[in-house]
Structures are given as C-alpha cells and as structure tokens.
Amino acid sequence: MTEIHSTPLHAETIESSALYNKDLAPVSRERRTWRTYSYAALWISMSVNIPTYMLASGMIAGGMNWKQALFTVFLGNVLVLIPMLLNAHAGAQYGIPFPVFARASFGVLGANVPAILRALVACGWFGIQTWIGGEAINAMIVALAPSWVNYHSGPAVCFAFFWLLNVLVILRGIETIRFLQGISAPFLLLIGFALLLWARQKAGGFGPMLATPSKFQSFPEFFRFFVPSLTGVVGFWATVSLNIPDFTRYARSQRDQIIGQALGLPATMTFYSFIGIAVTSATLIIFGEALWNPVAVLARLGNPFAVVLAMIALLMATLNVNVAANVVSPANDFSNLSPRRISFRTGGLITCAMGIVMQPWKLMADYGSYIFGWLIGYSGFLGPIAGVLICDYFVVRKKILVVEDLYQRGGQYEYAHGFNWTAIAALAAGAGVAFVGLALPAVRILYNYAWFVGFLVSFVVYSLLSNRIEPVAQPAD
Length: 477
What we know:
By secondary structure, the chain is mainly α.
C-alpha cells in the first residue's frame, strides 16, 4: 500500500480563518477510509446515467457506425483519465477538496475563478439531469393518462416537480446522497439491459442492429466529425477531472484511488455507451429514425406498466447521479466564495437555482447542441484550468503543499492580495486560443480540440511565467 503523508496542522490556526469551514477542512487520517472498491463503485454509479447513453447515441445519430462510436467513447475516457489521476493526487495526499487545492496555483482568493467556472458547468449539468428526470415523469403520466399529452405545460410542470425532489434530497444532506448512490446504478443497468433486449427482439437480432453503416464516405469526412466528438467525450468528465480531489481526499492510499478509478471509469463508460449505441442503431430499423433520447424510446414501449416501471427506475438513478456528480462540487465551490456564510446546503441550493437559469431544454434540443455546443464549449474553459493546476502541482511545486497556508491570508499562497495573476493569465490564454476557433472558421480546429488546445496552451504559458515561484520544503513531521 502506498502511504499518504500529509503536513501536520495546527487546527486552531486554520479554524479561526475566514477561509475555513468544516466542509472545506482537510480530512483527518482516521476518516480516509475509501478503498479501491469505493472508487470503482463511485465511477460505476456516476457513469451509468442517461447523458452517457445520449453521448454515444448522439454519435450514431450524427452518422457514425457502432464501431466508430464505441472507439471514440473508449479513447476519450482513457485520455480524460490522465488529468483525472494527476489532479486526484493532491486530494489523496493532503485531504483537501478542489477549491482549496486551486488556492495553491490561483491564490487563496483567485481560486474562486476556476471554482466558479467549474461550478457553473455543474449547474448546467444539474439542469440537464433535472430536465431528463422531468421528461421521464411526463412520459410516465402520458402512459397512465394519454390525455396529458395535450397539456402543453406538462413538461414544465414535471421539470419543476423533479427539481423540487432534488432540493429535498440536498436539504437532507450528504448521507441521503450516499444511500441513493448505493441503490441507483443497478436500476439504470437493468433499464439498459431491458432496452437492449427489447431492441434486439424488435430489430431481429444484433446483426441487423449493428449493421447500420457509417454515413461518412471518406476518412477526412469522418475525421471532421470524430475530432469534436472525441473532445466532447473528454469534456464529458473534464468537470470531475478538476474536482476529483473532493472525492480522493477520503482515500486510504494513492494506490486505492488510482486503481479504483482506472478500473471503474473507462470500462463502465464504454459498456453503457454500447447500450446507447446499439439501441439507437436499432431505432433506425424499428422507427425509421435515430432516437438518441432513451426517454423517447422507453415512451414507445407500448405497455403502460413497462413504461411506468422503467421511468420510476430511471428517476431514482437520475436523482442519484444528479446530486452526487452535479451538486457536491458546486456546493463546495460556492462555499469557497465565503466559507463563513455559505454552507454545503446553501451552495447546493444555489446550484439548484442556477440549474434553471442555464435553460437545459435548449442545451438538450438535439445532439448537435449537446455535443458540439455544450460539451465542447465548456471544455474550452476547463482544459486551461487543468493545465494550470497540473503544471503548478507537479512541475513548479514538485507535489509539495503547505496545507496551513491554503487556509490563511498572508502565507505562501497570498501572491498579489490573494490572486496569482500568472495563473489567471495562463487560463485566459488557453481559453482565448481555444475560442478563437469558434470566432474564425479558418481555424475551427482550435475549437474542435478545445480541451486539448486550452490545456496545452495554459500548461506552457504557466510553466514559462512561473519560474519565479520557488517550491517550498516539506515541513518536518
């Protein structure tokens, strides 16, 4: 087992600081109990979700065949695992969450910049998952009372109801989240298998299901769709690749979190994506069109009992994934704005409100808006943040942090009145280069590779500008 060594803390020093609250506090040694299985189970429960299904099914709807789509999903998840594990190290080593880790590179106040950017993306994801849950409720009501389909405000009412359900879970606290996480993933796996078997029977077997050819007539034509799709896959978990310290701060050892994540993420994402790919391919045969939204597929099962049962299972699983993946991080991020005033629950409620403001019904209008607009768009901000964090921690500081100074003003991470403008400049440079491709069609490839371009530019810029930062020696135990 790889031992985790952390800096000894003077609790009274950091607890009196305005930068401290119990939700952002370092996790003590005795509370670091998560093992390999914990992290594998975490990724299984977070990966088995409707947006995973829709990510892969959107590629089929866009013209890929099943092999091309599955390869794109697998490669993207292997690539995003790299920054995931690199950022995870600090959480496991020092027991600190993402907003506190970001203070080392961005400054004790400047850390709010990456934290809020990350939080806003999570708010968008919260809204998306809540919209999906509302669609499931709406489809369930239509199955029981067909006349409901004539009620034009029905989807909005169902969205509001599911939104309130999420709020209740947040108000009950983290223990409710942990309980839901343990029971929900199996439900979505069962739904996936049921859809797969149904599609196989309706389409006449796996052969016809997977025989749908790619619509791309040449490699260059395929590559133009492949590049932004791959970036979208990386962008899918670019969010958690930043705030993974929120989870690895509970790791028993580095080995536990590394192996658990490596086993859980790529395999589960690829497997569940295959279900989305196969079922969407089958809908081309069954309905004459590619239905990329599983709620729309489930609503056409024909048997009201089957529809209701599937939607209830989908709702439970969506509720878990939504709160675990899209509330824990932004709640901590918003808390970091004013630790003394904003608790985890308050941060969670802010997330709920912002989820409505993000208008998820527009983000989910079609697969183009979802993959090429939403996923790639926000990856242009998150890639540069990852570049700065990883460069600062591994290249500049050689993995050495003074935890006490992360919670107080005037210390190692004060920089210029709490802001490290070098880090902010590197972030701006990375995002700026990536988004030039959105403004200028001639260099569209920069936007299509937004996460990769942003990461590389910010990493290089920060490395070049940070030669004045001297790594501190590890305090003696």
